[in-house]
Amino acid sequence: NNKETITTTTTTTTITMVETMITTTTTIITTMTTTTTTTMVETMTTTTAMVITTMMAIMVTKTMAITTTMVITTRGITTTTTTTMGIIITTKNKNNNNNNSSDMSSNYSGPHGPALPPPHPSVALGFNQSTFTYDELAAATQGFSQARLLGQGGFGYVHKGILPNGKEIAVKSLKAGSGQGEREFQAEVDIISRVHHRFLVSLVGYCIAGGQRMLVYEFLPNDTLEFHLHGKSGVILDWTTRLRIALGSAKGLSYLHEDCHPKIIHRDIKASNILLDESFEAKVADFGLAKLSQDNVTHVSTRIMGTFGYLAPEYASSGKLTDRSDVFSFGVMLLELITGRRPVDLTGEMEDSLVDWARPLCINAAQDGDYSELADPRLENQYEPNEMARMVACAAAAVRHSARRRPKMSQIVRALEGDASLDDLNEGGKPGQNLARGSSSDYDSSTYSADMKKFRKTALDSQEYGASSEYGNTNEYEQRRN
């Protein structure tokens, strides 16, 4: 007769907001555990765990539902939980009239906050990105002012922004005219937002304002690799830093190629797309943007003009860029780190591209172990010879004419780390043998040189080139300094 009677009722209600589910769970835990007896706390602990487990399944399967539990006891405490429009409203009734009930409504959006519009479903399910209004980004960038302009490139303008919470961001305004619908854009952004890696720049959010598309990224304070190698940074990168940058960017690119399904081909690997954090750790930027910005021939050709020094030779014959094209571009970037030279001399003073200039030197250095002709004079021969040998071997293998004979990025990572034999890069050959060249049937050197000259002429003759040059004063993400 003195025993308690506990009744449990389960109700399922369909809703449309993930944020509501999270808030509801908090309400159930708080209300039930603070107003019931010891026996009921044990009961509700089990019940709450079931609710959380159900919600975890909801996030994975994208089935939006909430399980609401009602518990009744006979000790003078009545706890009632009801569901209204997908929002849990919890009321408590006790004989002594405690006035500590929790009340939530559909207009709640935080302490003293105004009502917020429901997020796009892709945002709600992704948990990795946020939508921004044009006004929010305009306020963060001081009206997209010239003072906040970090730079510009083939994809558009980049401005530094500061959010109300103090977080620094980089706002990339994509060039207009993509012709891509809102749903298609959101779908592509959702894919990018799910890619997270230590050596990839994270997407914070996006904005769609009429025909304008903007992407919001984390801000990295130390500018780009291009700025420090070829710009006016005043900082000479020592060998240890260069190797760390090479390895970090290799790991980021390897993740895109081999750990993302489907694989993500960057299509625009270059020194100005390698951003550096406060510790000079490298992060690969702008992955996924090629697909977001496939608009018209003029825009694509303008991008090629700005980056043809990194362009794989097979592009001239096939017009296609693959993961092995990314490897070639990465090899060019390694040569920049080794030599301190630009991929190509746009003034026309140097006839050969960096690749053609470095190929014979790489072969000679691999054979005799002397890297003095290759190494950046600013290093003053301050480098570890074995590390230099590994980086030179990786660069030479990556820029082979034959795409199929270039290594995978994971092989390059292992070679740079010293965890793999250089024979893995050379397909079992001796160092220096076939290190750079593939078979002549794939793509011969004279054809490659002719194509590079054609690209150079097209770039220099282009009226658009000055506005989007990756080597000019408006180099993308090149931070303005006082």
TrEMBL record:
Chain coiled-coil ranges: none
Highest taxon in the source lineage: Eukaryota
EC class: transferase
Keyword Transmembrane: yes
Positions with biased composition (Low complexity): 91-113
PROSITE patterns hit by this protein: PROTEIN_KINASE_ATP, PROTEIN_KINASE_DOM, PROTEIN_KINASE_ST
Keywords from the UniProt entry: ATP-binding, Cell membrane, Glycoprotein, Kinase, Membrane, Nucleotide-binding, Phosphoprotein, Serine/threonine-protein kinase, Transferase, Transmembrane, Transmembrane helix
Keyword NAD belongs to the record: no
Subcellular location: Cell membrane
Region of interest called Disordered, as start-end residue ranges on this chain: 91-117, 423-447, 459-482
Pfam family for this entry, one: PK_Tyr_Ser-Thr
Family statement drawn from the similarity comment of this UniProt entry: Belongs to the protein kinase superfamily.
Protein name, UniProt field: non-specific serine/threonine protein kinase
